[in-house]
Amino acid sequence: MKLLAKWLLSAAALLFVAYLYSGVQVQSFTSALIAALVIGLFNVVLRPVLVVLTLPVTIVTVGLFLFIINALMFWAAAGVLDGFHVNGFGAALLGSLIYSALGLLIESALGGLFPKQ
Predict the structure, then answer these.
(1) What number of other Cβ atoms are within 10 A of residue 56's Cβ?
(2) How far apart are CA 66 and CA 55, in angstroms?
């Protein structure tokens, strides 16, 4: 149940990012649901590989390179989907920052609603 709630709230967060920032466009709630799913899959499958491969750069930049990796996941999701569009890498960076901040809020809210057993 928590996973379904997180998915729905992440899609709503993506729509909110598109509302706040004109560099990100989402056509519909269905497109937002699919985009949230794809971003989540990319973060689960590709992000750990990229973090390991870029570990020296991440250490040198004191972790700031992780923002670049998040932006790449956001931008890659927009590249493979039709109803979700990002206007370049700068827009992906800012959009992913807003989306990540909203994701933290969602995760903390769901942690209170669905306590661990």
Answers:
(1) 9
(2) 9
Q: Strands, DSSP E only, in the chain?
A: 24-26, 84-86
The C-alpha torsion from 111 through 114 and 116 to 117, rounded to 10°, is: 170
Tokens of 21: 């920032």
The one-digit pLDDT tens for each residue of the chain (117 residues) are: 888 989 999 999 999 999 999 999 999 999 999 999 999 999 999 999 999 999 999 999 999 999 999 999 999 999 999 999 999 999 999 999 999 999 999 988 888 777 776
CB of 35 closer than 8 Å to CB of 11: yes
pTM: 0.87
